[in-house]
From TrEMBL:
Protein name, as recorded: Zf-CHY-domain-containing protein
Keyword presence, Zinc-finger: yes
Region (Disordered): 1-22, 299-346, 357-376
InterPro entries: RCHY1_zinc-ribbon, Znf_CHY, Znf_CHY_sf, Znf_CTCHY, Znf_CTCHY_sf, Znf_RING, Znf_RING/FYVE/PHD
PROSITE patterns: ZF_CHY, ZF_CTCHY, ZF_RING_2
Entry GO MF terms: ubiquitin protein ligase activity; zinc ion binding
CDD domains for this protein: RING-H2_Pirh2-like
Gene3D superfamilies in alphabetical order: 2.20.28.10, Zinc/RING finger domain, C3HC4 (zinc finger)
Residues annotated as domain CHY-type: 34-101
Length: 376
């Protein structure tokens, strides 16, 4: 593609001088589907070419421009078009001022977007400032001013507003979501993620990758952990060891008996918690000694006495990452009572299957709605 443009004849003064001259090559018709006589390029059906305001060259579309250039086009700055029916260069518009042909069924004056695919529904959202895929505002989408994004209309008055919700990168793949052309979904906590990234993510996790709240009703999963813990008691050495945990779901701190993997929140009885501090109760007066990182991270099977540090160090509550200080591992990851007593590394976890994938919990409840994709 690029060579075609570079090889096309042009007078030296033709680039960057603001002239609207087009080469022979520029004036030629190009097709979206030649067999059906549909003008355009491989990206769009449209009856015109546009003049890139940045470099003064003619292209079928912004993708054609960006593929052939070392810079990206600012589509809204497009001013001129070339009608491929009559080769007239003119101001950008939906219809040719000369031959009156319609360049596309959809034309956005603000985005300078022409799309002649009659099956595609596109609308322009003034608040988003871009065109999005959908029937339109008030039909299948509405714009939430607080979240600053278009959402499907079922979410109106029924979603958690998060300021400028989409103006960030997907927590999984890192693509900027506001202008993403892939579907972005909202999770029950209000955070968003690409639909395709979410699909893979929930195969191995049940927590929102942004705020770590549970993505669904985990009660079945938690009662499995309850029975697991009832069967597998901790070695006697650990009898007086307790952890302070912060619940990712209800955000309450509580105290719970120390365990290698699972720490229950005293308030909501869930296990989506992270260990903030682990301590040992000594003596009858309930005096407390803080235990150091090694034990709480589950990397030692026993508690050597010299790991008791007399109250100075605090076990680091790891914010965010799913390291071993988070007790939210999958069911079945504990390798059984042997591991609990063997004294070696305890957490020998393969990639845990997410409890959301269990028959009792459906991944569907982990999304509450979708946002309007940016129109390509
Ligand atoms: Zn193109
Ligand atoms: Zn024309
Ligand atoms: Zn638009
Ligand atoms: Zn919008
Ligand atoms: Zn909102
Ligand atoms: Zn993503
Ligand atoms: Zn979240
Ligand atoms: Zn809780």
């Amino acid at each position: 593609m690029s060579s075609r443009w570079q090889n096309s004849k042009r007078t030296p003064g033709n680039v960057n001088d603001g002239s609207v001259e087009a080469t022979e090559e520029d004036l030629k018709k190009t097709y979206f589907n030649e067999e059906h006589g549909q003008l355009g390029c491989k990206h769009y059906r449209r009856g015109c070419k546009l003049k890139a305001n940045c470099c003064g060259r003619w292209f079928n579309c912004r993708f054609c421009h960006d593929d052939a250039s070392d810079h990206t086009i600012v589509r809204s700055e497009t001013k001129m078009m070339l009608c491929m029916h009559c080769q007239t260069i003119q101001d950008a518009a939906q219809n040719c001022s000369s031959c009156k042909a319609r360049m596309a069924v959809y034309y956005c004056e603000a985005c300078k977007l022409w799309d002649d695919d009659p099956k595609k529904h596109i609308y322009h959202c003034d608040d988003c400032g871009i065109c999005r895929i959908g029937q339109g505002l008030g039909r299948d989408y509405f714009h939430c001013k607080k979240c600053n994004v278009c959402m499907n209309i079922q979410l109106q008055d029924k979603h958690k507003c998060i300021e400028r919700n989409l103006e960030c990168d997907c927590p999984i793949c890192g693509e900027y979501m506001f202008t993403s052309t892939s579907t972005v979904i909202f999770m029950p906590c209000g955070h968003c993620i690409h639909s395709r990234c979410h699909e893979d993510y929930i195969k191995t996790s049940y927590q929102c990758p942004t705020c770590w709240k549970s993505l669904g009703d985990m009660s079945v999963y938690y009662s499995k952990i309850d029975s697991l813990l009832a069967e597998q008691t901790m070695p006697a050495d650990y009898a007086n060891i307790f952890s302070i945990v912060l619940c990712n779901d209800c955000e309450v701190k509580s105290e719970t008996p120390y365990h290698f993997l699972y720490h229950r929140c005293d308030k909501c009885r869930g296990y989506n918690t992270k260990v903030l501090e682990t301590f040992k109760r000594v003596g009858t007066d309930g005096q407390v000694q803080v235990v150091d990182n090694a034990i709480a991270s589950g990397t030692t099977g026993t508690v050597p006495e010299n790991n008791i540090t007399g109250g100075t160090s605090v076990v680091g509550g790891n914010t965010g990452s799913s390291s071993s200080s988070s007790s939210a591992a999958g069911v079945g990851t504990s390798s059984g009572s042997n591991a609990l007593t063997a004294g070696g590394p305890v957490v020998n976890v393969s990639v845990p299957r997410s409890p959301l994938m269990d028959e009792n919990a459906s991944g569907d409840m982990t999304m509450v709605g979708i946002s309007g994709n940016s129109a390509p």
